[in-house]
């Protein structure tokens, strides 16, 4: 799929520049519009999204003042979290005018503009070198024909001892065509990759996949929460748009939830580096790093100190 910069901008505007009021109806306050991380089935959406950011920060092994590039920075929630909790210096990239405006205003409001900046820029036009690179929910918009270009750019931007993390929706049953309805009405230009499409391009770029984690059912739970919130404020959405739009979005959220429950859709978190020794040789460091970061569940989760409950019966049986 050919995806030049001009087309990429149009595709992003189709979905992400629909107005702040719409996304405030169903997203968490951080406006995380990607898969949350439910450590416990009783986690609120707010806690689960904070768990996701904490999980990512731990995998990045961030230290104060390290330079971070956030490709597809959304409304700025992850970049702000990384700067607040680790002292990192963050540059976020988005093609959405609405997202860039919101994120930049928030950085100024929270007096972090000197350490967090958001740019209206395609990743292909980015220059410089970064200690860490993170990309959450953006790879689905790259286009399969541009994977080689994408990972070549990661190689060029990532310091030799750096670490990158790619968080993307994926297919666990091999390559497949986009759903026509979703491609037409919701995410034009979107494509859900399989590992068999991603990993060869990582290898060709000369990068090392230092860790691959598959998040199952977490996105189904995220979409369930979004759908319930959207339906609870459906009348407000109808005022913003119309009844046709509401029916379309209700179907979009329900269909995607079903896809993650029953149609082998998952989320891949792929950690990348130039060097084999860029991260420790066991995964214990992730939990160690998490303990140094704020735990939203310790303060706001309704689960309290109860043992973790599984997300789904299927998980409990595994």
Explain what the structure shows:
By secondary structure, the protein is of the alpha/beta class. It has a single domain (5-276), classed as Vaccinia Virus protein VP39 (Rossmann fold, 3-Layer(aba) Sandwich), CATH 3.40.50.150. The protein has 14 helices and seven strands. The protein has helices spanning 5-16, 20-24, 45-60, 77-86, 97-109, 147-157, 180-185, 195-205, 218-232, 234-240, 243-262, 284-291, 296-300, 313-317, and strands at 67-71, 89-94, 116-120, 130-136, 158-171, 208-215, 265-273. Strands 3-2-1-4-5-7-6 form a seven-stranded mixed β-sheet, with helices on both faces. α5 links the parallel β2 (89-94) and β3.
> What is the topology, as strand order, of the major beta sheet?
3-2-1-4-5-7-6
Number of helices: 14
Low-confidence stretches: 300-310, 313-318
Count the E strands: 7
CATH C-level class: Alpha Beta
Report the helical percentage: 40-55%
Rounded average pLDDT: 90
Shape: globular
CATH homologous superfamily - what is it?
Vaccinia Virus protein VP39
The N- to C-terminal Cα distance equals 37 Å
Largest sheet: 7 strands, mixed
**Helix- and strand-based class?**
alpha/beta
CATH topology: Rossmann fold
C-alpha Rg (nearest Å): 19 Å
**Could you spell the SSE succession in H and E letters?**
HHHEHEHEEHEHHEHHHEHHH
Beta-sheet strand percentage?
A: 15-25%
Taken together, the total number of domains comes to: 1
CATH architecture: 3-Layer(aba) Sandwich
What keyword list fits this structure?
disordered C terminus, 318 residues, 17% strand, 7-stranded mixed β-sheet, alpha/beta, 14 helices
């Amino acid at each position: 799929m050919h995806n030049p910069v001009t087309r990429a901008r149009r595709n992003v505007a189709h979905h992400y520049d629909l107005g702040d009021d719409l996304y405030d109806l169903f997203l968490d306050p951080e406006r995380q519009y990607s898969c949350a991380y439910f450590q416990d089935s009783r986690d609120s959406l707010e806690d689960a999204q904070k768990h996701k950011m904490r999980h990512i920060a731990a995998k990045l092994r961030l230290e104060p003042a390290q330079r971070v590039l956030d490709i597809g920075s959304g409304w700025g929630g992850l970049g702000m979290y990384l700067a607040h909790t680790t002292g990192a210096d963050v540059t976020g990239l988005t093609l959405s005018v609405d997202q860039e405006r919101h994120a930049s205003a928030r950085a100024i409001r929270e007096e972090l503009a000197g350490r967090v900046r958001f740019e209206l820029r395609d990743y292909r036009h980015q220059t410089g070198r970064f200690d860490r690179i993170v990309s959450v929910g953006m790879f689905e918009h790259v286009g399969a024909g541009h994977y080689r270009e994408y990972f070549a750019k990661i190689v060029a931007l990532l310091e030799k001892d750096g670490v990158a993390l790619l968080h993307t929706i994926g297919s666990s049953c091999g390559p497949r065509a986009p759903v026509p309805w979703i491609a037409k009405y919701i995410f034009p230009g979107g494509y859900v990759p399989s590992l068999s499409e991603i990993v060869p391009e990582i290898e060709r770029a000369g990068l090392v996949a230092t860790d691959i984690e598959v998040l199952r059912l977490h996105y189904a739970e995220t979409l369930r929460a979004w759908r319930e919130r959207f339906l609870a404020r459906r009348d407000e959405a109808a005022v913003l748009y119309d009844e046709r739009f509401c029916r379309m979005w209700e179907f979009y959220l329900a269909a995607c939830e079903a896809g993650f429950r029953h149609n082998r859709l998952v989320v891949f978190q792929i950690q990348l580096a130039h060097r084999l020794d860029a991260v420790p040789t066991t995964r214990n460091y992730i939990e160690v790093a998490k303990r140094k970061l704020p735990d939203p569940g310790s303060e706001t989760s309704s689960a309290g100190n109860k043992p973790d409950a599984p997300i789904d019966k299927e998980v409990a049986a595994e």
